């Protein structure tokens, strides 16, 4: 079939096709921030949890004007429109709409350029009326369908540029149709009547000669050198047109100069007479004819305006006439404009973040409805009420799973744990300054807002257990630092090492000394911390695990978690090692068998079952060793000293033996257990059991001395105690 | 007529093209990068293909590591290292048991082969004979023997078996054994200690430094390969290195170094601008040949209580001559330093060793022997009296830090963690000893020394005589 069509036609068709594709291709822009409004995660609207292609419900959300919940009607319609059949239908209707528009506009341009509306005052030709009417009908019907496809609610016309332009375009089109219909009906009829009242030949002038144009059974006259000739019956003047170039009803004196013949031909045609003496017509055109010319020019202007409307929405007018959601768009823009100058560090970090890429702007996280939390100093130069503290409650709007898991972890609840376990706090043995600079940077403060800003002493703070003014616990930016909020960062051990270090819980030192850590330090810079398929895989992306790999990330059959209490089978930080479910300060709701199976599943990515099982054997052995051989006997001695009353119970740390016991479990005891758990022999032995042995014999010797003396020496002055 | 046909056909073509739009739309949605795929298309036996196909799913970490190793490049597959005869004692029982299942989730019965979990230097020697020979005569391979000949913890049974396993043996190595069920004895496994005694009689583990399953030469050239063992209060070689100018340059510029040069071609200046542990102790440099025997190039045993020449180190006398070895090390230095720099450095080192020996160690040792002789200290156990611990830390901790800190030019370790601490310890030790002598009262003995339950029997496989 194609063979029969000439090559130029094929090229033309293909050209049209690609042009069509270009016009109808939809540029999709992901917009994460809407999750906060809906309370749904990204995955609700998008194919991927991090964004990407929209699902039907995502389209429906946009159609609903970025409002949630979405009505059943809108949802169903979005579903229908996503089917290939409907997409094709819309494509075809759109094509026909364009075609009809071009034909219609073309016809109007033709009239204005070649025929001149003034010449049609005698009435419109039948063919043109038919073309105009059918084009208008097609445009109206196809336009109605296309509008139905795009517009779901009345407000859709007034809350974005496209809608506004479409609305104006429809108004203009309706006006045009009204004018057109008037023109081809009432005006046309009246003009016909007016033009059929042919003036007497003696009163023909250059002003009214237009009535003798030869159309529709009227005589065809023209003027040459003030003489009037009749060509009504001439075969060369059919319908009043001469070779398609000249029309009857005009003065052709000047036109003769360019003609292939001279004035001699006029001798063969009928001379009617001479034009009347006054060059101006005494009568002039009828008012209805004037009206018609006016209407014709009005329609031309309307066409220009309609094309302008299309251009404004299609090729992105440089100013947003109506932002998609007025308040958000204006505010988001203002934050960036100002903070780019004021805090270039924050701005650049955000710009390089995924948040920056998908348009999660400042207001999405910092905006607050609660007047009590709003930062007063900010309100002074911006109408946006912002909270300085962004909490997991804010983040949970888009990352609900992560926030929920985090909320039940030991991380989020470290305040409760600390107060239930720790002597420093409960006995007031250190003061506010020491707590704010020592304990709370990691464990978190209780942040309160006073006089429109976070109260001094509670701020700045990004502790994992921070208690936020909105009542939520913790801070996501402890590990995903501001304002980059990077996944890759939290996967690296450095994310943890600001807190998990030092004499009392040296997890990072232990990790660094383990073979896992040494491989990370040697080769980590070659690893892929953020693979494109989002599945961070052992062997492919990294060859030794980091803190996150074992404790948090998804691997094999083990799913990802932000609850770091998962996968733990022992509480190695407790004075006496217990199962997480028995940890009284914060009992986990887990079963250690299950959790160990999870951790084992992580090991099995790179190790055999024997290797993993025997490692856990070692670990259990070390825990047992610590509990029964070191902790229990010393605890018994301590309890004995307290019950005998030779060591005072009033304040902890004010007697030498109390220090010794504290460091025994809190320092060396943890190092031994954690060193074994993470396979760092130097910590298991030299900083662990080796030191435990020293401490054990020292405590025993001291206790014997105290028992012999009948009392232990109390430190008379204890520096830096909490003011009562 | 012809014109109207053309018109009809044109409309038909346009409609067809329009209908194809949704199809193109669907194709355009796949906007994610293609995931890296490993394909096995090479001439290896079907059993080996079966290993790979199964383990890429069950242990993707092992598979991924192997797939990007030189072994994979050279077609060396799982069987080349893990294959054993079916009757061998070290056959992996779990693996056999898997094939006994009726419902095999992976693999097929016909691909069943016997394998061992433990791969030893003997296995590696089939392709790398020189490296294994050198390694087997090193202090690394023989560290169990050295440890048992020197260490009071083991010989006096002052720590427990589990403490040894999670502490000492992790680096020094276990004596591998099979338990009653024919499985690897869980008190000896998992282990990759450099001195591990394997069931085939070979010593050590190549994967201590060339970690599984990448077995990379570039990894072992980096200081991180050594630092999970050569660290801590008693032999902080990695901390010393990191504080030395060599180490600080490595930290600053190491990511620009070329660690993956072919074996035997890794050159100072072109591939790296500061040496790592391997560069001085193992890699070839100038006229010096590369070696896997780390006892080479050493002119003092700085880890011994009294510093001696390696050939005089009683626990494991080297067969070398220290003058020859020092010349080797000097040649390594010469790649970047002038002769007077090198000679004057060694003068400082020798002086520090002499001072440590004469001024700190010998007088303290004399005092300790004196106390034992006077029965003021009890010889039955070690560590159960405070002075014994003081003496131990004097040579085993500060004494080593001072000597090793000088040796590798880290002044902080030489002085603050070294001689400074030696002085403090020496004075305390002497004061406490003097008190004992003055009072004539025997030192306090810690009764119930915790967890002093370790086996004091030396491993028969090594101490057969």
Characterization of this structure:
The complex is a heterodimer of chains A (724) and B (465). Chain A is 51% helix and 4% strand. Chain A contains 27 helices and 9 strands. The termini of chain A are far apart. The relative contact order of chain A is 0.05. The N terminus of chain A is likely disordered. Chain B has 465 residues and is mainly alpha-helical. The mean pLDDT of chain B is 90. Chain B is 49% helix and 0% strand. Chains A and B meet through helix 1, helix 6, helix 22, helix 25 and helix 27 of A and helix 1, helix 2, helix 4 and helix 12 of B.
Question: What would the average pLDDT of chain A be, to the nearest integer?
Answer: 84
Strand order of the largest sheet of chain A: 3-4-7
Major sheet description of chain A: 3 strands, antiparallel
Strand content of chain A: under 5%
Principal-axis shape of chain B equals globular
- The number of helical runs of chain B is 20
Series of secondary-structure elements of chain B, N-terminal to C-terminal: HHHHHHHHHHHHHHHHHHHH
Binned, the helix content of chain B reads 40-55%
Q: Care to count the β-strands of chain B?
A: 0
- Termini Cα gap of chain A: 98 Å
Radius of gyration of chain B: 30 Å
Globally, the shape of chain A reads rod-shaped
**How many strand elements of chain A?**
9
Oligomeric composition of the shown chains: heterodimer
Give the averaged pLDDT of chain B, no decimals.
90
Essential attributes:
heterodimer; A: 724 residues; mainly alpha; 3-stranded antiparallel β-sheet; two-stranded antiparallel ribbon; disordered N terminus; B: 465 residues; 20 helices; 0% strand
Walk me through the topology:
The complex is a heterodimer of chains A (724) and B (465).
Chain A: H1 7-24, H2 34-38, H3 42-45, E1 46-48, E2 51-54, H4 56-63, H5 72-81, H6 84-115, H7 126-150, H8 161-196, E3 221-224, E4 227-230, E5 241-242, E6 246-247, E7 270-274, H9 287-314, H10 326-342, H11 344-351, H12 354-358, H13 362-366, H14 376-379, H15 392-395, H16 400-407, H17 414-421, H18 423-426, H19 432-443, E8 449-450, E9 453-454, H20 487-491, H21 507-513, H22 515-523, H23 547-551, H24 592-603, H25 609-644, H26 656-677, H27 681-709
Antiparallel strand pairs in A: 1-2, 3-4, 4-7, 5-6, 8-9
Helix pairs in contact in A: 4-5, 6-7, 6-9, 7-8, 8-9, 10-11, 21-22, 25-26, 25-27, 26-27
Chain B: H1 2-19, H2 21-28, H3 46-58, H4 60-67, H5 70-73, H6 78-82, H7 93-100, H8 121-125, H9 129-136, H10 143-150, H11 152-155, H12 161-172, H13 217-221, H14 237-243, H15 245-253, H16 277-281, H17 322-334, H18 339-373, H19 386-407, H20 411-439
Helix pairs in contact in B: 3-4, 14-15, 18-19, 18-20, 19-20
């Amino acid at each position: 079939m194609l063979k029969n069509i000439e090559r130029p036609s094929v090229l033309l068709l293909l050209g049209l096709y690609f042009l069509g594709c270009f016009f109808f291709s939809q540029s999709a822009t992901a917009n994460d921030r809407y999750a906060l409004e809906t309370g749904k995660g990204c995955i609700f609207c998008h194919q991927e949890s991090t964004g990407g292609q929209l699902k039907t419900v995502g389209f429906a959300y946009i159609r609903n004007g970025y409002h949630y919940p979405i009505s059943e009607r809108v949802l169903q319609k979005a579903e229908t429109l996503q089917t290939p059949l409907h997409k094709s239908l819309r494509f075809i209707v759109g094509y026909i709409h364009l075609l009809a528009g071009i034909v219609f506009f073309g016809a109007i341009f033709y009239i204005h350029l070649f025929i001149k509306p003034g010449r049609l005052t005698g009435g419109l030709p039948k063919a043109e009326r038919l073309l105009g009417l059918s084009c208008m009908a097609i445009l109206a019907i196809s336009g109605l369908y296309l509008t139905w496809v795009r517009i779901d609610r009345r407000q859709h016309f007034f809350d974005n540029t496209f809608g506004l332009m479409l609305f104006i375009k429809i108004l203009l089109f309706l006006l045009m149709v009204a004018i057109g219909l008037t023109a081809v009906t009432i005006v046309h009829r009246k003009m016909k009547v007016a033009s059929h009242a042919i003036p007497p030949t003696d009163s023909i002038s250059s002003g009214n000669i237009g009535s003798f144009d030869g159309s529709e059974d009227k005589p065809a006259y023209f003027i040459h050198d003030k003489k009037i000739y009749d060509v009504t019956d001439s075969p060369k003047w059919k319908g009043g047109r001469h070779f398609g170039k000249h029309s009857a009803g005009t003065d052709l004196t000047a036109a003769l100069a360019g003609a292939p013949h001279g004035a001699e031909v006029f001798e063969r045609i009928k001379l009617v007479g001479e034009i009347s003496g006054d060059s101006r017509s005494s009568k002039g055109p009828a008012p209805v004819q004037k009206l018609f010319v006016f209407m014709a020019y009005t329609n031309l202007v309307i066409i220009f305006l309609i094309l302008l409307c299309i251009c404004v929405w299609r090729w992105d007018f440089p100013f947003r006439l109506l932002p998609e959601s007025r308040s958000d768009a204006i505010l988001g823009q203002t934050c960036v404009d100002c903070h780019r100058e004021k805090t270039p560090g924050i701005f650049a970090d955000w710009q390089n973040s995924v948040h920056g890429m998908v348009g999660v702007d400042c207001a999405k996280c910092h905006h607050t409805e609660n007047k009590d939390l709003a930062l007063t100093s900010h309100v002074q130069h911006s109408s946006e009420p912002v909270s300085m503290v962004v909490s997991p409650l804010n983040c949970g709007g888009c990352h609900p799973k992560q926030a929920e898991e985090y909320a039940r972890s030991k991380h989020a609840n470290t305040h409760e744990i600390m107060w239930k376990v720790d002597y420093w706090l409960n006995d007031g043995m250190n003061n506010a300054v020491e707590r704010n600079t020592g304990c709370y940077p990691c464990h978190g403060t209780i942040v309160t807002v006073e006089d429109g800003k976070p109260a001094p002493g509670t701020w700045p703070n990004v502790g994992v257990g921070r208690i936020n003014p909105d009542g939520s616990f913790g801070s996501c930016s402890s590990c995903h630092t501001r304002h980059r909020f990077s996944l890759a960062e939290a996967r690296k051990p450095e994310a943890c090492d600001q807190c998990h270090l030092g004499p009392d819980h040296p997890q990072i030192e232990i990790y660094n000394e383990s073979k896992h850590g040494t491989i990370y330090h040697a080769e980590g810079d070659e690893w892929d911390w953020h693979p494109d398929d989002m599945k961070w895989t052992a062997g492919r992306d990294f060859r030794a695990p980091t803190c996150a790999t074992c404790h948090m990330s998804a691997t094999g059959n083990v799913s990802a978690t932000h609850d770091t209490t998962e996968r733990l089978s022992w509480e190695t930080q407790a004075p006496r090692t217990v199962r997480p479910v028995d940890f009284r300060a914060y009992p986990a709701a887990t079963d250690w068998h299950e959790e160990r199976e999870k951790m084992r599943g992580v090991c099995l990515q790179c190790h055999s079952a024997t290797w993993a099982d025997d490692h856990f054997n070692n670990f259990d052995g070390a825990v047992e060793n610590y509990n029964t051989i070191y902790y229990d006997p010393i605890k018994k001695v301590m309890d004995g000293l307290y019950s005998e009353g030779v060591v005072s119970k009033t304040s902890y740390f004010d007697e030498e033996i109390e220090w010794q016991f504290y460091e025994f479990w809190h320092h060396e005891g943890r190092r031994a257990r954690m060193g074994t758990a993470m396979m760092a022999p130097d910590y298991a032995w030299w900083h662990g059991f080796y030191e435990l042995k020293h401490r054990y014999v020292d405590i025993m010797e001291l206790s014997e001395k105290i028992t012999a003396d009948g009392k232990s020496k109390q430190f008379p002055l204890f520096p830096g105690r909490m003011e009562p | 007529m012809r014109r109207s046909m053309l018109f009809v056909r044109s409309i038909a073509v346009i409609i067809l093209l329009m209908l194809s739009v949704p199809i193109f739309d669907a194709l355009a949605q796949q906007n994610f990068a293609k995931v890296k795929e490993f394909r096995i298309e090479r001439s290896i036996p079907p059993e080996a293909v079966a290993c790979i196909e199964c383990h890429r799913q069950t242990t993707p970490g092992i598979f991924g590591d192997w797939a990007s190793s030189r072994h994979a490049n050279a077609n060396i597959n799982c069987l080349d290292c893990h294959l054993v005869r079916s009757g061998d004692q070290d056959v992996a029982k779990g693996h056999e048991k898997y094939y006994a299942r009726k419902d095999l989730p992976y693999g097929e019965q016909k691909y069943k082969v016997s394998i061992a979990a433990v791969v030893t230097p003997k296995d590696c020697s089939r392709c790398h004979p020189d490296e294994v020979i050198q390694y087997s005569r090193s202090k690394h391979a023989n560290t169990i023997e050295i440890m048992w000949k020197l260490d009071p913890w083991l010989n006096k049974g002052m720590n427990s078996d589990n403490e040894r396993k999670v502490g000492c043996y992790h680096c020094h190595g276990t004596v591998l054994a099979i338990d009653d069920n024919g499985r690897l004895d869980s008190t000896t496994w998992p282990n990759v200690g450099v001195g591990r005694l394997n069931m085939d009689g070979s010593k050590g583990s190549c994967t201590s430094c060339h970690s599984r399953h990448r077995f990379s030469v570039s990894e072992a050239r980096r200081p991180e390969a050594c630092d999970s063992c050569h660290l801590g209060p008693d032999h902080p070689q990695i901390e010393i290195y990191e504080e030395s100018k060599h180490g600080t340059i490595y930290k600053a510029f190491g990511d620009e170094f070329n660690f993956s040069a072919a074996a035997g071609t890794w050159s100072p200046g072109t591939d790296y601008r500061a040496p790592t542990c391997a560069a001085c102790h193992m890699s070839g440099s100038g006229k010096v040949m590369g070696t896997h025997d780390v006892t080479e190039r050493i002119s003092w045993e700085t880890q011994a209580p009294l510093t001696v020449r390696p050939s005089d180190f009683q626990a494991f006398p080297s067969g070398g001559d220290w003058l020859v070895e020092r010349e080797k090390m000097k040649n390594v230095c010469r790649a970047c330093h002038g002769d007077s720099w090198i000679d004057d450095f060694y003068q400082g080192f020798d002086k520090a060793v002499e001072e440590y020996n004469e001024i700190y160690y010998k007088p303290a040792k004399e005092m300790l022997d004196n106390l034992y002789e006077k029965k003021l200290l009890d010889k039955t156990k070690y560590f159960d009296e405070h002075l014994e611990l003081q003496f131990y830390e004097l040579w085993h901790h500060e004494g080593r830090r001072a000597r090793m800190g000088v040796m590798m030019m880290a002044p902080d370790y030489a002085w603050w963690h070294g001689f400074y601490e030696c002085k403090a310890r020496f004075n305390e030790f002497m004061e406490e000893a003097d008190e004992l002598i003055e009072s004539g009262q025997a030192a306090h003995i810690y009764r119930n020394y915790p967890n002093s339950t370790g086996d004091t029997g030396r491993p028969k496989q090594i101490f057969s005589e």
